[in-house]
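Deliverable D4.2, example record:
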Amino acid sequence: MLKLESVSTYYGNIQALKEVSLSINEGEIVALIGANGAGKSTTLMSICGVTPPRKGRVLFEGEDITHLSSEKIVALGINQVPEGRRIFPYLTVRENLDMGAFLRKSKTEVQRDLEYVFELFPRLAERRHQQGGTLSGGEQQMLAISRALMSRPKLLLLDEPSLGLAPILVQQIFKIIRQINRDNNTTIFLVEQNANLALKTAHKGYVMETGRVTLYDTAENLLNNEEVKKAYLGGA
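Output generated by the structure prediction step:
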């Protein structure tokens, strides 16, 4: 479904990604793990057109999307839940969700998906008329994920969904991530600081260090890899 071919991305003269190549098949959950500053978020930004690569190609369902606008990339079926949520704080929960669906034409399908996200996150249904900025951190993360789902994505990009959340909420969010994948066969590319939880959720994973992919394997094998354990999982 998604393929990066030797992608190099820069911020000015600073090279953030160095010939990154990876692939994601339809229906997979794929984790990208690494230390802060490794280039994980930049990888997502390169896919969704916010920071286009200077070299290399991004292919989605066989189409070269490397230099398409973010709006066109969303229309093709890729949506990102950004780090820090970035909901619209002065819009209500319902209005935030409507913004997620604004490229869609069928009101019937949009209503069906609205009911689906309210089933996933009953808390949002209770607060549908409340301004997004007044929600708790966990509720804002639920809203950010739901807003992305309202675009009916084929590929969902998740950037640090556990950041700043209490452990009980983190478990809930990751349970929902697995459910979204299972219910809709939604392909998910997950960038996550909590490597242990990410690899327990994913089918396969990539390890990134200083802008390069240094390791790729099934999630299970990465969980049992001694180097990964020492570097990212809190010891051997």
